Amino acid sequence: MKKNFGGLMKIKYTGSRLAYICIVSALALFSSLAHGEQKQRLGEWDVHYMVVNTPFLTPEVAADYGIMRSKYNALVNISVLDAKSGEAQQVAISGEARNLIGNNRKLTFKKVAEADAIYYLAVLPFRDQETYRFTINVQRGNITQTLNFQQKMYVDE
């Protein structure tokens, strides 16, 4: 079912714990005026992306997905949907995050499939008020699209 939270975002909720955590995290981030879930249309895909601090995850969910909770770690969450049908797409994802002084961090994504949702998750270590430029390559067959975005990271005390 589609949820619309004040016109800020739409998420296809599948009942999974990860989806629930992402919704709660996005709402918490919106309430603190930080970045939440965002979307870009890349060719025939709607690519949803969200970067949240890992302490927003419960210890149980973090353990289930092998994510280390730390105020210095962010979770990069990518979901690729067919723009017409809204169906989750199985793709190959690679990427990097580069800070403003040029230090590069390779992002290693882990695929998580639950019900009719597919998420690609990576952990990014960061320092307080560090800005990253993300370059995420999404590939399926011979089609490759690149998602670019920038986000400033904050340590939550």
CATH topology name: Immunoglobulin-like
Helix-strand topology string: EEHEEHEEEEEEE
In which order are the strands of the major sheet placed?
Answer: 3-4-5-9-8
Protein structure class: mainly beta
The total tally of domains equals: 1
CATH superfamily: Domain of unknown function DUF4426
Protein name: DUF4426 domain-containing protein
Task: Give descriptors for this structure.
mainly beta; Immunoglobulin-like; five-stranded antiparallel sheet; four-stranded antiparallel sheet; disordered N terminus
Care to describe what's here?
This protein starts with a strand and ends with a strand. The model is unreliable at 1-14 and 26-35 (pLDDT under 50). It is built from 2 helices and 11 strands. The longest helix is centred in the first third of the chain and has 15 residues, at 17-31. It has one domain (2-153): Domain of unknown function DUF4426 (Immunoglobulin-like), CATH 2.60.40. It is mainly β and 157 residues long. Helix content is 13%, strand content 50%. The strands form 3 sheets. Strands 3-4-5-9-8 form a 5-stranded antiparallel beta sheet, covered by helices on one side.
